Every structure is written in structure tokens, then in C-alpha cells.
Please model this.
Amino acid sequence: MRKVIPVVLAIAFAGVASPASAVFLSTDPVRPDTNNGTNFNRYWYANNNPYRFTDPDGRFSRGDGWTDRQWRQFDRSQQSAANSLERAANRLTSAMDAGGRQLQRAERSFERSFGAGSATQENMTKMAANMGTMAAALRDTRPGAVPAHGMTGTQIDGQYGGGSTTLAGVPTTGPTMVIVNTTHASFGHTGRLAWAAGHESSHTALGFKDQVFNGDRAYKFGTPQQQDVFRTLPGSQRIISPDHIMDHAR
Model:
């Protein structure tokens, strides 16, 4: 059984706090969000949950284990993934609204990603909604948002065993979180890191699982066997495959 990562997090704040009252005396520079009510309390840092998040400048909520530079790199990548997912969702929605040749082009593209016969209105509508949900999860920094923790490959091996070759993953036990391997060779590759962030959002936001066929998982950037499964995965599984969704979006 996999272990649960202990909740022992570093805490850092941009605000000035009163040691007597334990209240921040300077306001958070993030403006209130009128859509969801977040941050109307201007003395709220780290999503009001400093035991779970760090908040070095009052602008990001993030999990443990990051240097500022690493977090900026990962955050740029997850925002890139969110942008790709949103654009892909908008293309599908616009094509279904427009019909005609625009819809035909979208259907051909959809079937290249998800298999012959997959481009039904139901599937395309659902996929646009799913990609929108994934993008929203990548942008979410509100209280209760899923945190991303940075860990080295050695730390991942110590906590989970055999995971140092993985760029990112979601633990199967304990609180929902994303673990990112900051010492992985692809951590400095913006495209691969964005792909990984988007992939993991399908796990946390939609509950999708990595698809398995003939005993191997479908990964576009995995082992030769996993890449082969990615290419030959049946259409019924592609529609819920994290890597196929990201392949269509990217």
C-alpha cells in the first residue's frame, strides 16, 4: 500500500502580521474575485490556509517543496496547458455552432484523436465540457483547490517507491494532490511539463484513469510499449484517456 505524504509544510507570507493578535496587518495584493467571492477579505493570505499552502507574494497558492523559480516554471506550464485546453474546447463549441465545413474539419480532427466514429455531437459536447473543467482546475487557487507539491525523485522513491522516473502523478491514497518531480529530466521542458500538468488535471478534476490495454498503459511519452498502446488504444478508451485528451488539446 502506498504511503501518505505527511503534512509538514513550509510557511511564507508577503504580509506583515501582528504577533499579539495573529492577524495580518497588510492587505493581500490579489484583488477580490466578484465571480466567486474569493479574497473579499483583503487580509487573507495563502487562501486562509497557511498550513496547507505557501504564499510568498500573496499571488499564488501552492503546495510544499518548491523554490520560487521552480514554482514559476511549473505555474507557467500549467497555465499553458489551461490555455490549450480552453482553446480546444472553444474550437469544438464554435464548430458545432457554425456547422458546415467548420464542423466537418472539427469532426475529422476529433476522429484523428479519438477514433473513427467518435465525432458525435454528444461526444464533442462532453469533451468540450471536460476540457473546460480541466482548464478551470489548473487555474484554481481558491480555498480547497488541489495543491501541487514539488518533490525530488529521491523523495518520491522514499514516499511512494519506484516513482522517480515519473514527471508528475496523483497519489492513490490520502488527500488529493499532485506531485511534481522537480529533478526529472523533462521538468525544464515547458511542453512536456504542460502536458503533465494537464494530464494530472484529468485525474483530479474528472476522476479519469490512465487507460490500460493488454497490460500496458497508454502514454504518448512513455516506454515503447506504452507509446504503442497509445497509438492503438480502442476509441471507447481514448475518449477518457488523459493522454489522448491532451494530445487533442496540444
In short: Residues 1-45, 51-60 have pLDDT under 50 and may be disordered. The domain at 17-249 is CATH 3.40.390.10 (Collagenase (Catalytic Domain)).
